[in-house]
Specification:
The structure is a homodimer of 203-residue chains.
Chain A: H1 9-31, H2 34-41, H3 45-51, H4 55-79, H5 85-99, H6 111-119, H7 124-151, H8 160-181, H9 184-199
The structure holds a DNA duplex (30 and 30 nucleotides).
Chain lengths: 203, 203
Amino acid sequence: MTTATVRNPDVTRQRLLEAAFTEIYQHGYQGMRVDDVLKRTGLGKGAFYHHFTSKHALGCAVVDEIINGEMGQRWMDALGETEDPIPALEQVMDLIVESETGNDGVFLGCPLNNLAMEMSAQDVAFRQRIEELFSQWINLIARAFERGQQAGTVRNDIDAQEAGMFLVASFEGCVGLAKATQNMDNFIICRKQITHYLNSLRP
Amino acid sequence: MTTATVRNPDVTRQRLLEAAFTEIYQHGYQGMRVDDVLKRTGLGKGAFYHHFTSKHALGCAVVDEIINGEMGQRWMDALGETEDPIPALEQVMDLIVESETGNDGVFLGCPLNNLAMEMSAQDVAFRQRIEELFSQWINLIARAFERGQQAGTVRNDIDAQEAGMFLVASFEGCVGLAKATQNMDNFIICRKQITHYLNSLRP
DNA sequence: TTACAAACAGACTAGTTGGTCTGTTATCGA
DNA sequence: TCGATAACAGACCAACTAGTCTGTTTGTAA
């Protein structure tokens, strides 16, 4: 009598997505191998091509579901409906960077930015998804700034959208420099400058 | 009577390097194909493996010679021995971004940062080279700030090294966001904020 | 209970890719 | 002039890789 293997297609699909995310995070989309995703999950080719039409479709689904979900949740949680976004932003930036170090001690940076640098100039499907996530991210911060302006915690003479965009850009830049040098001290230094910038947004 | 083909090993090597740079710039190191480099140069496998031991060695040589050379020259030219680095920095940032758009209109971003995001967490040889280039770059700017401090064009109470590091990080962040969204307007917006930051370094 | 479709396993394939190996030609010092 | 060697060309190869195809098992609706 053999053990009856339980089937749960939704869980299987999710496992594939999460394994793919990890592989993409470590090796990039082009460096990600379908076989490695399968090894990580213990599944076979049949399962994979039952749930996804191609490697490309899997990559897109990772952006849509994993990266979007993770980022949306974190920044949404952090900013929420706060009327004093500046300390909230500082907190979430540190929190995120802490969690982006691989289990082997290698700092992998921001999954979204990694994929953006690799794929935005190469593949339209990726670019559109990445652009959408950046847009949502910036808007989330911009609206938080606007609430701060109404509550008097943020200067009224600054453009919330432009400030949000620069915050995202400079944050990604700092994370990227830390990844490039594999040195967290550099992130600390850069983050200090971001703090100066955020303080300059105070009334 | 057949035309005698002229041989010039130094030129051949340089052609391989430049073709490889273009391919890496467009597709990343992992996406770069040796065959495509050969097609671009019109050379054969023999020439390639005569001048380089492997694809990996070629990639390293591209960083050492092409990227290092190009970046060093531009920023050295721009900053030189100037005692007023702020306008010089603004000028070179705009100049560089203009030249980083591919001939098909796709904005490819910064070659060094692209490679850093792709390879720094994966390959030690690449990471060391990339780290060295970032270090040189930041030091060049930091020393320009120090000259500015002595000449009175830059505030004395700021840390030149930290300011240089943040400038590089935020610049790369802005370039990256423009690449991610394939929208130069976003770079303009972010660059304006960098201008604010630079002005805050004035005495 | 029993068709039947969904959910897989896994061998197989066709195309790709970095690298090798043999051979040929240009260059240059003696 | 003439070998010797550097500088190539290009066929070839082994490993890899995304994707296919056939077959098997599990869930499920009638």
